[in-house]
Automatic annotation (TrEMBL):
One of its GO terms (cellular component) is membrane. Belongs to the DHHC palmitoyltransferase family. Its main location: membrane. GO terms for molecular function: protein-cysteine S-palmitoyltransferase activity. This is Palmitoyltransferase. It comes from Hymenochirus boettgeri. The lineage of its organism: Eukaryota, Metazoa, Chordata, Craniata, Vertebrata.
Length: 324
């Protein structure tokens, strides 16, 4: 639905180079291109650092804290909990990174496609001039992914991907498991420090006392930093799901043009159906019910129509009019 604020929020310019006929249809992709992976150097580096930090925590927890401990039950129970959390965190990270966040087909703003939408005179569609696609409501263009993403929340370099409609569940799980693993590591570091103070420092670890202290302090910093960062992110994400407002929409502070869902409905949509254990699994899909663009826009065809394109802000508005 086009509102006055949409029409006039930016200065209009002439749409000379953005006519629908200038858009070329997307080329057929081979199977390798179907794997969603953003080739961004900074994002790849951040993702590698994330994995490295989890493995560093694994190393310290296993070789400095748990293996030298004399309490076998304590070591086994904490080892199992920590490894399960680490596995789920990395699984969520991987799924968040290689899941298409809800990219709109590139270059679909062709004359044929717009005609196939069978729009009524007076109806409008939004076209992204950067990726030449018809933008569904609530989609935003990401300059890193170079695509328009449905319900884009933000582009996260730590998962080297956009957080959008299709992968928000994995991102929420990633922040949740990283904050849990950080909290667990912090508790174990604190207990181990106490244990080393009570015992002899040479006996509480298989490393030398200075190395043990440095490794534990580094893990402590890492745990604190990630606990704060991911717990805040987790809270923000759950809040945005419950209020049905993405990070970008909140930032722009625009009046909602969509019908807001209830908190519970929002959670069910993001996590894939009714509440069950699969909500917490990064290996089950989010099963989001997508409404194809054609269904949203399909109406009866009118023969005497013309198409006008004009740029408003960062989008081109293609308006359907009647010839007489
Ligand atoms: Zn775009
Ligand atoms: Zn992106």
């Amino acid at each position: 639905m086009l509102t006055p604020s949409h029409r006039f929020r930016d200065i209009e310019r002439t749409a000379v180079y953005l006519q629908p006929e200038k858009c070329v249809p997307p080329v057929a992709q081979d199977s390798m291109d179907k794997v969603w992976f953003i080739k961004d150097g900074c994002g790849i580096a951040c993702a590698v650092v994330t994995w490295f930090l989890v493995f560093y925590a694994e190393f310290v927890v296993i070789f400095v804290i748990l293996l030298p401990s004399k309490d076998l039950i304590y070591s086994i129970v904490n080892g199992i909990i920590f490894n399960i959390l680490a596995f789920l965190a990395l699984g969520s990270h991987l799924r968040a990174m290689i899941t298409d966040p809800g990219a709109v087909p590139k270059g679909n703003a062709t004359k044929e496609f717009i005609e196939s939408l069978q729009l009524k005179p007076g109806q409008v569609v939004y076209k992204c001039p950067k990726c030449c696609s018809i933008k569904p409501d609530r989609a935003h263009h990401c300059s890193v992914c170079k695509r328009c993403i449905r319900k884009m929340d933000h582009h996260c370099p730590w998962v080297n991907n956009c957080v959008g409609e299709n992968n928000q569940k994995f991102f929420v799980l990633f922040t949740m498991y990283i904050s849990l693993i950080s909290l667990h590591a912090l508790i174990m570091v604190a207990l181990h420090f106490l244990y080393c103070f009570e015992e002899d420092w040479t006996k509480c670890s298989s490393f030398s006392p200075p190395t043990t202290v440095i490794l534990l302090i580094l893990l402590c910093f890492e745990g604190l930093l990630f606990l704060i960062f991911t717990a805040v992110m987790f809270g923000t994400q759950v809040h945005s799901i419950c209020t049905d407002e993405t990070g970008i929409e909140k930032l722009k502070n625009e009046n909602p043009t969509w019908e807001k869902t209830s908190s519970w409905e929002g959670l069910k949509q993001a996590f894939g159906g009714n509440f069950s254990l699969t909500w917490f699994s990064p290996f089950s899909s989010s099963l989001y019910q997508q409404v194809p663009l054609d269904e949203k826009c399909a109406v009866t065809q009118d023969s005497n129509e013309y198409v006008v394109g004009r740029i408003v802000g960062h989008v081109e508005i293609i308006e359907i009019g009647q010839t007489n």
